[in-house]
Design brief:
Structural class: alpha+beta
Strand content: 5-15%
Number of strands: 12
Radius of gyration: 24 Å
Number of helices: 18
Family: Belongs to the SELO family.
Helix content: 25-40%
Organism: Galdieria yellowstonensis
GO molecular function: AMPylase activity; ATP binding; metal ion binding
Largest sheet: 6 strands, antiparallel
Oligomer: single chain
Distance between the termini: 46 Å
Order of helices and strands: HHEEHHEEEEEEHEEHHHEEHHHHHHHHHH
Cofactor: Mg(2+)
Keywords: ATP-binding, Magnesium, Metal-binding, Nucleotide-binding, Nucleotidyltransferase, Transferase
Length: about 550
């Protein structure tokens, strides 16, 4: 019997949520909702700000049907119910979450500096759902009101930022990159005031709430904060919780400090490995996160918190999509692996009381090894190679990227067009570069010859391993070199329309990014590099204002 026929689907009102995070970890004893420093606690109980609202009429404006069906086992038709908008807009609570909604307590390093206590300033977790495939999904509302960790902010979110994270989450998941997921965006009917470019020009924007899911939203910063305050008891409890629920394969390992392979070392090593893999996959598709602070790094290696992210258009390794990052470009594409390693080191050091200093060095050596291995595998697949030769094939990739940078060609489209290369003698005699260059690009003869020389070198590499079934190789390559990515100028146009009340383009983009590898002629407009008008701050580069 097919899985779909075996699954019991729920109405949202009947969704059975569990609450292990609340029941197993230390709680903030103060239950009043005001901004404060929280000690020796993993979370604070808090309710959405809109529960007392009676006049607003929230509405679901974006909905991901496969997340609803496959992750939450929700019945079809739940999107259109008033109850759904109320729950996911933070205006009403499910019966199974009434006494358990909470915000997490964590700290973190931001732009390389310790920032102290941060926490979920505008995020409220409803609870955990374990679906009928055995998967756990924590459900969060982002923008549902201020929490004890809100600092100077109002706790709300605006429509544009919710749409960005909604689409980005599903775009990366469809690309095979570990990510949090997005269920829906609910427009609250409230105005939210924001200074988009931090220039003193505060304007009203449409308020919204994003519902997002992940197996866990625990971050590096959760551990960093307890380590900073030398709260070793809570640190150990949190580590034990993570091992029990996410890495149970380490439960049987010793917890002895003297054993360098104790359960905490194994846990830390696995977290580092997962994040090395995640960042390697970012690099392969040209994704730039933009705000790689340690509080935005997940213990499960999930891409987390989509703010001013971007994908490479023309290949520029110094590209950063974050206007705040422009002076130093700490979080540019070129630096992402280095920053990920730095973040992992901060996480591993936060657990030093559980396994000792020598283990930190051993674990961090693994990051370099794993990242290199994962990235090499990504490039092997992108080139369509059967076997990877570290020395010669890395040179092949590096020279390809040098050509891309010099001639300012589109990163995604050029990788995709690489599958057009054939290994026949007849093809070798042609002007091979024409099969990689877009029709609107004209290169000088000397530059074109550089490309032809690289292509001939690539063909010889394919022949060397008898990789001459061009059609089979093309099929393999097109399964890992996407045709469609979530370019910022597409998002800009969709958000502009959404702010007038038209969400058709948001829906269209969701459909495009859900199948990024299959080329569809009717979607040609969604595989084009951005026009010149889009290469400005506010489109290709964004602020953290949300």
């Amino acid at each position: 019997m097919a899985l779909k026929e075996c699954v019991k689907y729920y109405q949202l009102s009947q969704l059975p949520l569990q609450h292990s995070f609340v029941s197993e970890l230390p709680k903030d004893p103060q239950e009043e909702n005001f901004v404060r420093l929280v000690r020796r606690s993993c979370y604070s109980l808090v309710k959405p700000a809109f529960l007392t609202e009676t006049e607003s009429k929230p509405r679901v404006v974006a909905w991901c049907p496969w997340v609803a069906e496959k992750l939450l086992d929700l019945e079809q038709g739940e999107r259109d119910k008033e109850f759904t908008a109320q729950v996911f807009g933070g205006f009403r609570l499910l019966d199974s979450s009434v006494n358990f909604t909470y915000a997490q307590c964590y700290g973190g390093h931001q732009f390389g500096n310790w920032a102290g206590q941060l926490g979920d300033g505008r995020v409220i977790c409803l609870g955990e759902y374990r679906n009928q495939r055995g998967e756990r999904w924590d459900i969060q509302l982002k923008g549902a009101g201020k929490t004890p960790y809100g600092r100077f902010a109002d706790g709300f979110a605006v429509l544009r930022s919710c749409i960005r994270e909604f689409l980005a989450s599903e775009a990366l998941a469809s690309l095979g990159i570990p990510s949090t997921r997005a269920l829906c965006v609910v427009e609250t009917g409230k105005q939210v005031w924001r200074d988009l470019f931090y220039d003193g020009n505060v304007k009203p924007e449409r308020g919204a709430v994003l519902t997002r899911l992940a197996p866990s939203f625990i971050r590096f910063g959760n551990f960093e904060l307890f380590a900073y305050y030398n709260d070793l008891e809570t640190l150990r409890k949190l580590a034990d919780y993570c091992i029990k629920h996410y890495f149970p394969e380490f439960l049987e390992a010793t917890n002895s400090f003297s054993d360098e392979n104790n359960r905490y070392a194994l846990f830390a090593n696995r977290v580092v490995e997962l994040n090395a893999e995640m960042v390697a996959k970012w690099q392969a598709v040209g994704f730039v996160h933009g705000v790689m602070n340690t509080d935005n790094f997940s213990i499960l290696g999930l891409t987390l918190d989509y703010g001013p992210f971007g994908f490479l258009d023309r290949y520029d390794p110094l590209y950063t999509p974050n206007s705040t990052d422009l002076p130093g470009r700490r979080y540019c594409y070129l630096n992402q692996a280095q920053i990920a390693r730095w973040n992992c080191q901060k996480f591993v050091q936060s657990l030093i009381s559980l396994y000792g200093g020598a283990t930190v060095f051993n674990i961090m050596e693994k990051f370099d090894e794993k990242y290199s291995s994962f990235l090499s595998k990504c490039y092997q697949d992108k080139l369509g190679l059967l076997v990877w030769n570290e020395e010669t094939d890395k040179q092949l990739v590096d020279s390809f990227l040098d050509l891309l940078q010099t001639d300012q060609l589109d990163y995604t489209n050029t990788w995709r067009m690489l599958s057009n290369i054939q290994t026949t003698d007849e093809f070798m005699q042609k002007d091979c570069a024409q099969y990689l260059l877009p029709a609107n690009v004209t290169l000088e003869a000397s530059r074109k010859e550089k490309w032809n020389a690289w292509i001939r070198r690539y063909i010889m590499r394919l022949r060397e391993e008898n990789n001459t079934d061009d059609l089979s190789r093309k099929e393999r390559m097109n399964k890992c070199n996407p045709c469609y990515i979530l370019r910022n100028y597409y998002l800009h146009k969709a958000i502009q329309q959404a702010e007038t009340g038209n969400f058709d383009e948001v829906e269209k983009l969701l459909q495009v990014i859900s199948n990024p590898f299959e080329e569809r002629p009717e979607l040609k407009a969604y595989s084009q590099e951005p026009p010149e008008w889009a290469n400005v701050v506010g489109i290709c580069v964004n602020s953290c204002s949300s």
